[in-house]
Amino acid sequence: MTRRLIERVFAPAFNNPMLAQLHDGAVFDVGGVRLAFTTDSYVVKPLFFPGGDIGSLAVNGTVNDLAMCGARPLHLTAGFILEEGLPIETLHRVTESMADAAREAGVLVVSGDTKVVERGRGDGLYVNTAGVGVIEHNLTIAPDQIQPGDVVILSGDIGRHGVAVLAARGELAFEIPIESDCAPLWRYVESLLNAGVEPHCLRDLTRGGLATAIVELCGKTFDFRVIESAVSIAEEVRGACELLGMDPLYVANEGRFIAIIPPHQCELALATLKQSGCPSAAVIGEAVGDGQGRVWLQTLMGIERTLEMLSGEQAPRIC
Amino acid sequence: MTRRLIERVFAPAFNNPMLAQLHDGAVFDVGGVRLAFTTDSYVVKPLFFPGGDIGSLAVNGTVNDLAMCGARPLHLTAGFILEEGLPIETLHRVTESMADAAREAGVLVVSGDTKVVERGRGDGLYVNTAGVGVIEHNLTIAPDQIQPGDVVILSGDIGRHGVAVLAARGELAFEIPIESDCAPLWRYVESLLNAGVEPHCLRDLTRGGLATAIVELCGKTFDFRVIESAVSIAEEVRGACELLGMDPLYVANEGRFIAIIPPHQCELALATLKQSGCPSAAVIGEAVGDGQGRVWLQTLMGIERTLEMLSGEQAPRIC
User: Fold this and answer.
1) CATH node for A2-135
2) Nearest-CA distance B256 → chain A (Å)
3) Residue ranges per domain, chain B?
4) In terms of Cα–Cα distance, which of A22, A27, A29 is closest to A2?
5) Architecture of the CATH domain A143-307
6) Does the pTM of the predicted model rise above 0.90?
7) Looking at the complex, does the CB of residue B137 fall below 8 Å from at least one CB of chain A?
8) Checking CA distances to A163, which of A22, A43, A147, A148 falls within 20 to 30 Å?
């Protein structure tokens, strides 16, 4: 639905080349300095979940969108919409968590705003963050840079965030010891760049999971081939998904990304990611030419099927 | 309440010099380029009112915060929180209005985000915008630059936005032909800078009105003296305020600002503002030394009393 809104409502209204890129953030030049600029609102329910909360999510989500532009995250703004009656203690916990996450990600929260709405016009607390980052290299890292032959590297195992939030909602009939993967990703991107890797595109996996991210990146002239057996999924996550009838390829993440890398740099990129804190990074597929923008999944059963974008809401208010 | 939250919750958590300035936005340097960065969330009720709507408000409010930092507004992000059931037509109208306001203000909406919450967890539509601007001069325009002797210039008549929104809510028992003053302010700031005026501080009048803005700017070592008879208020606004028992000095504005100017530039600043589209710009007061941070109002009746910050909610969800 978000994509439909973008295509039908927002893109025509705000028509400009930066928005048209459908990238994680806008990249532009000011006085010879290349900047990235992005925003996300966070409405996750519940506010606190194993491995994170709306505060750490709001910092890492926006920091990661900057990182996916190849930008070093610098500064964030924070906008809070508080529902009347929200305990001040809750706001304290969330802001402390944001401050911790900002420190870990190396950014400052430099400006903010607070609005209050009546009871029944919010849900405790919504947070918006916007972020500015600086691009310190000359690469163009964007969806339109992907070329046939590029390999797809996944930085870690998938599905933890979505399952952790559903578990925190009490929507699972069983206990599950899974924490969200919510984490800042710039350190890994920086390692890649420092090692001389020249990624064609980076994309963090959020709402809609790995499958939606890859489908979104498909151009009109090439396909992706993905090997399901190469995608790392923790046993507990796989088990929870089976019980819930959910496909882990579509479950949300908040600390995983895919890097689309020219093939001759595949080993360098993989080794760099493994060394810099992504031990289960793996090549999961490749871009192949003469396609029509489809994602072909070679399933665990050995058959091949196409992946579609997630439609409808598998798990609303997951971020 | 917002100020208490800032002082007790946000400032300690996000402790950093930029946030500590309590300015309309953060100012920082990236690679030798001076940038301003700010955000606001908008929860105005109703979404549409005479002279504007939540969309034009969300653009102008953030553009104006950048202008008050002395920065040329460049790019905005937009984050939407939609309540389930919001008519798509409403979203269309709001985004078209945002696009028009962005064109008028000379900015691009370059990145965005949409979240959907369940019925009863929002109020139609909340909008957050964040903005980046560039500072193309070497002045420091900030509250801590104000000096005793500086004059206070008000750019136009006050109270239109607050009265227009209350009227649109049907909270007035009478019809009133007043439109919000919602408008972008950079053009006036740019005129001042181009004329060689070196403002010590700029502040737009929003929630809490003129009185709250001036009280917020008071330092610990100087007072402000304000002449009430110099403050321009339209007859209809004054009449509506009298009937409602509201003090127009505390009523919200979205297209007015005060400029704190060194005294020798007073005439230049005033003439420049009048020429550039603020015909009723006027000197309304001055900063005086040896004070304790009080605002002294010489009232229409000729007596002198102190102005306090607005506490409690004179008119909630006005922006």
Assistant:
1) 3.30.1330.10
2) 20
3) 2-135, 143-307
4) A22
5) Alpha-Beta Complex (3.90)
6) yes
7) no
8) A22
